[in-house]
Specification:
Radius of gyration: 26 Å
Order of helices and strands: HHHHHHHHHEHHEEHEHEEHHHHHEHEHH
Largest sheet: 5 strands, mixed
Low-confidence stretches: none
Number of helices: 21
Distance between the termini: 74 Å
Oligomer: single chain
Structural class: alpha+beta
CATH architecture of the largest domain: Up-down Bundle
Number of domains: 3
Shape: globular
CATH topology of the largest domain: Butyryl-CoA Dehydrogenase, subunit A, domain 3
């Protein structure tokens, strides 16, 4: 039995004993009052039982009750004002390192400790991820939840640190209940049933790797799919084709990351995707000495929405670009792609968007570009007509791009992007995205 399973079994036994001490779960208990009891008592068994009850009742609650609980958690568990004032006075009088540590400890919101105590219950981590998913959804109309979201991010950033994560290669021998999760979560190129999954994880020139957390051993956090090829791919269809010829892995010179999926909405903003890619690269380099290139074949999910909105384009597009967009069939849903989807103007639009459109806080506007550029990849090639599916048309008129992970320059690229927002791109893409005077 794995150590995590043994610990889980112990926690469940202690929780059951605690429930016998506090009585059965009360369906309509005041959850905030229960949390105050949890943090104010030292009893281990009763604390675990109360935490499990709070999580169970929260999970079964409607949105009104959830919002009331989350608001209470955000507003009723602030720092101890008297203790904080004393620590401030002590620190200001001596500026000692010990005083600074005391100040840091006392200033921590009480809600952080509530979340820690709740996480001691068996199976609690998955429930807290679901709770943060609710926070992300409800805070759009309830600004007071922003502070609570910061508390979750702070804790999850520690709990889901790379040192706690386990990378696994997923193949056809993995239990079906885990394999099914990948079918459910895949967000880039939908699995077309079990046979499609078998092709992507069972073929010798295909790989799927995932990160898991010891508290959730059957629940993937993020996964990446890899194709081993002879060349840099320019379209997704050959990679996903049912009747493609299988390549012996030893003959491959290129590893292609063609789908990266975050499985847990509750971990939004917790960065570990870059570590997965780097760990997979190291694993593949160890297994296959003939691999020379590591690239992606990536979607451009924000391209169409940006280009069709004159306010977003912000004068970056020339009249010929606007005319090219107008010529595209907005509601197209046929087979293949129309010829105009391969026009040079569309490649220019994509290059301008990827190299010059920025977000308000800095960095590339496109989320996939931001992710890979932030990891130190180089924007290598733009591939019009690469995705013939309806989703690809709806998001980017079928455009996909290659990002190149060149390990001789990856850290330098990362520093340039992180510090200066510099988009490292091939000379071909720089030429496409360069401002040009309107001709004719």
């Amino acid at each position: 039995m794995p150590p995590s399973s043994m610990i889980e079994g112990v926690l469940r036994r202690i929780t059951a004993q605690g429930r016998s001490l506090i009585g059965q779960s009360r369906r309509n208990a005041d959850l905030i009052a229960e949390c105050k009891t949890i943090v104010s008592t030292a009893g281990q068994a009763s604390g675990l039982a109360r935490a499990r009850d709070v999580l169970d009742q929260y999970a079964a609650a409607n949105d009104d009750r959830k919002l009331a609980f989350l608001t209470g958690l955000a507003t009723q568990f602030g720092p101890d004002a008297e203790a904080l004032g004393a620590c401030i006075d002590s620190y200001l009088s001596g500026h000692s390192p010990a005083g600074m540590r005391d100040l840091h400890q006392v200033s921590e919101p009480g809600g952080v400790e509530v979340i820690r105590r709740l996480n001691r219950a068996p199976g609690a981590t998955a429930d807290l991820l679901s709770m943060r998913t609710d926070v992300l959804r409800l805070k759009r109309d309830n600004a007071e939840l922003e502070a609570l979201d910061r508390d979750f991010r702070h804790l999850f950033g520690s709990w889901f640190n790379l040192g706690f994560l386990e990378m696994r290669r997923i193949d056809w021998s993995v239990p079906a209940e885990i394999l099914e999760k990948f079918i459910t979560y895949e967000a880039v190129h939908e699995f077309r049933g079990w046979e499609d999954l078998r092709r992507r994880v069972g073929a010798p020139d295909r790989r799927l790797y995932a990160f898991f957390h010891p508290s959730m051993p059957a629940e993937p956090l993020i996964f990446v799919q890899v194709a081993l090829t002879r060349d840099i791919p320019r379209a997704i269809a050959p990679i996903l084709a049912e009747d493609r010829a299988t390549l012996p892995p030893q003959e491959a010179n290129t590893a292609v990351f063609y789908s990266i999926t975050n499985c847990q909405e509750g971990l939004r903003g917790i960065a570990f995707g870059s570590f997965l890619i780097k760990q997979v690269v190291e694993q593949l380099r160890f297994e296959l000495e003939g691999l020379e290139r590591f690239v992606t074949l990536s979607p451009v999910p924000g391209l169409r929405a940006w280009a069709e909105d004159p306010a977003n384009a912000d004068g970056l597009l020339a009249p010929r670009h606007v005319a090219a967009i107008a010529a595209l069939d907005t509601n197209w849903a046929g087979e293949g792609l129309p010829e105009e989807a391969r026009s040079p103007a569309l490649s220019e639009i994509a290059a301008i968007y990827l190299t010059r459109a920025t977000r308000s806080e800095g960095g590339a506007r496109d989320p996939v570009a931001h992710f890979h550029l932030g990891n130190g990849a180089r924007l290598e090639a733009i591939n019009p007509g690469a995705d013939t599916g309806r989703r690809g048309w709806a998001r980017s008129w079928g455009v996909m791009v290659n990002y190149l992970y060149d390990f001789a320059s990856i850290e330098r690229n990362h520093e340039a992007y992180a510090n200066d927002g510099a988009v490292i791109a091939s000379s071909a893409i720089r030429r496409l995205g360069r401002p040009r005077k309107e001709r004719g």
